[in-house]
Amino acid sequence: MPQPIVQEMSDVPFNLDLIPPGVFGDWIHDIVYRDAYSPSACVAIASTAISSVLAKRINIYPLKNNEEWVVIPNFWGGVIAPPGSRKTFLFKTLLEPIYRHQQGLNERFDEEMKGYDADKENLDKPIKERVFLSDATPEALQVALQGNDSCVLYARDELAGLLKDLERQYNSGFGKFLLEAWSGDGVYSQTRITREDVYLKDYAISILGTIQPTPFFDFLNKSNSDGDGFINRFQFLVKMLPPDIDDEHDEKPDLASKAGYAEVFQRIFSIPIGEKIVHFTDDAQKIFSEWRKSHQGKVVVEKNESLSQHFAKYFSLVPSLALVHEAIQNPDYRLNGVFRDVGSSSVNWAISITSYLELVTRQLYGDSGSSLAPEYVVAQKLLEKLRKRMNNNEVLVTERELKRSHKVKGDTSFVHEAILILEDLGYLFKETVVQRGGTKVFYHIHHSVS
User: Fold this and answer.
1) Percentages helix, strand, coil for the chain, rounded to the nearest 5?
2) Which domain range does residue 358 map to?
3) Domain boundary among 371, 398, 415
């Protein structure tokens, strides 16, 4: 008997080939091998971190000729992990290059302050540059960003605390402040009676953190009902199960890979802050445009409004990820001050990562019918049409008839996948008949479809 059309919502396997190439990925491979950490969590943390470094240095035009749409490669990352996942150690390991860079900035600021204190009449007061913060009140975060040109990685070992701050202070402007920071070019001003006024222009915050499943789903449900759009900004959202001790390898770390990973961060940190903007190469542009058209179809037909809003954020995520990939895989990314355009291998990697994230996000949003992928939705609609045929005693249908029967705007790109689903579940049986001048494909409809 055919099986019900239910999309499988089990754990989504992560292809190790999606770990970025070169020394950046070598260190991730080493961590996964020695400590049995989830590779998707490692890639999420490392990619979000490097995007925060790129964000105010290099941007990308996703379209070839229309330069009004500029993507600042700033995205938010979240790791959903139960207790005992050793996530604190993983964060510390992968964010170490940013910790060290911030430490160097702090030391430089201390020296500048010594000079300023010795000659205040002739010197301007130094401004501490921030690239990293782990804990700060909303007010302190706003003050820290004033005069700061860099994107700040706001890394919270426990996102639950930030989400509680957001709930308590959303109406006071903190939520709006963070949402503006996600785009990377936000403007925010606030006049306060008891404290200094705040005015920020073109500020960017990249949020990265972990959260346990229960508080995550509580906030997800509340965010969906309120429609605040906050959870949608966590584009790089993955799950992490506790490492399996049986899969660990008690070996010394690959220090050469660790040093190479850190060098990638330092190389990008060395690029001056500024409006450097690149394009896709011609081949990459074609790939991105085709993906964009297909993805638009998914967004349009998605019945779950919250999921549709989440997936709409992928239009900027793919260019951002592609730029990240291009920057980390090429040591000669900047040649004589000229930055390379983003190539096809980078955009293909970005699309593959985004496809994985789509599956994870569907799983996180639940396994209700409204959370089915578009191809499953189309499969359900085709099954209804097959029932009408069976009621008319039609037990045979051609492939062309199936495709022509479902010309609904936004769905056409998923008909082929839907037919394969109906085959796998036993509703259709394929038969290829050799005829004069070629072959013709027929489908026998299972007798239970009525």
Assistant:
1) 55, 15, 35
2) 16-371
3) 371
